[in-house]
Every structure is written in C-alpha cells, then in structure tokens.
Amino acid sequence: MSLGWTTTVLVVPIVVVLTAGFFYLYDVIVGLLSKTSVRNKVVLITDALSGLGKECAGVFHKGGARLILCGKNITAVSPFFPHTFPPKLVLLDFDDMDSMPEVIGEILECYGCLDILIFNNSLKVKAPAQSLPPEMDRLLMDNNYFGPITLAKGHSLNDVTFDFHIETVTA
C-alpha cells in the first residue's frame, strides 16, 4: 500500500466523524436557543379560556415566559393554571369598552412592560348582514376591531419604546 492510500483511509473517517459532530453540536445549540427565545418575556394572551389560548399559554410557559392571561371570567380561567405556573389573571371584556383604561393600567401593573401581545379573541356571526341589528354590528366591531386596537394603542402610549410584538389569531 502506498502512503497516499493509507492517508486517505485514515483522513476520510476522521472528516466524517468531525462533520457529524459539528452538525450534532449545531443542532443542540439551535435547540437550546429556540427554547430560550421567549424566556423572561412578558406575554399577554386574550381569551385564555379557549383551546388555542390554553395551548399558547402552555407553550409560552414551557419556553419560560411570564404570562398575563385575560378572559371574560377570571374564576373560569383560574382552575386551569394554578398547578402548572403562576400567571397573572386580568378580567378583560371587549364588550365593555369603558373599562379599557383600567384594564390597561392593570396589565401594566403586572410586570411594567409587555413583550408579546396575542389577540386570541374574535366574535363571529353567521347571518346575513342586512338582518343584523345595529347593536350586533357594534358588538362585532368592539370585539374584533376597537377592543384590540384600544388595548394595543393604550399600551403603546404608556410604553416609551413601543417595543412589543402583536399577533392576532382569528378563526
């Protein structure tokens, strides 16, 4: 056997093992970074009673986020979460637009800031538009437009940097 053949036989497995090790370390590091991308972030989830709200809360909790859970009925939200993590619970009803300044103040009192805002609420009506009374139109607009916009604008007025992400989830 020549010296070139022996060198090739020894170098190729070493290169393969080093390459595999590099990809393994890369995968481990990316996995660790993806788990910590929300660590210590403050996340507000509206309508935390829904199935999607519960799942979002669980995922963000596993990532290490600090949660503010909102719902129309605090007593209904409370039993779902006390044994897994201690979220802040806030009563939020987009039907009552007059209470929004108090709600915004209560949200800001929880942690003093907000990093991620998830609007997980919507109101749907399956009826012809011409048959709906004006009260229903107002209710739809309050729940699907004015409420979320008021909450986002109210927080941005109190936050100097306006540095948070907004996600809207509708069905």
Structure explained in plain terms:
50% of the residues lie in helices and 13% in strands. Strands 3-2-1-4-5 form a five-stranded parallel sheet, sandwiched between helices. Strand 1, helix 2 and strand 2 form a beta-alpha-beta unit. Helix 4 packs parallel to helix 5. The radius of gyration is 25 Å and the shape is elongated.
CATH class assignment of the largest domain:
Alpha Beta
Roughly what percent helix? 40-55%
Question: What is the CATH third-level topology name of the largest domain?
Answer: Rossmann fold
Largest sheet: 5 strands, parallel
Overall mean confidence score, pLDDT: 77
Question: What is the number of helices?
Answer: 5
Oligomer: single chain
Distance between the termini: 70 Å
**In the CATH classification, which architecture of the largest domain applies?**
3-Layer(aba) Sandwich
Number of domains: 2
Main structural class: alpha/beta
What Rg, in angstroms, do the CA atoms define? Answer: 25 Å
**Strand content of the residues, in percent?**
5-15%
Family: Belongs to the short-chain dehydrogenases/reductases (SDR) family.
InterPro entries: NAD(P)-bd_dom_sf (IPR036291), SDR_fam (IPR002347), SDR_family_member_7C (IPR052148)
GO molecular function, one term: oxidoreductase activity, acting on the CH-OH group of donors, NAD or NADP as acceptor
Protein name: Dehydrogenase/reductase (SDR family) member 7Ca
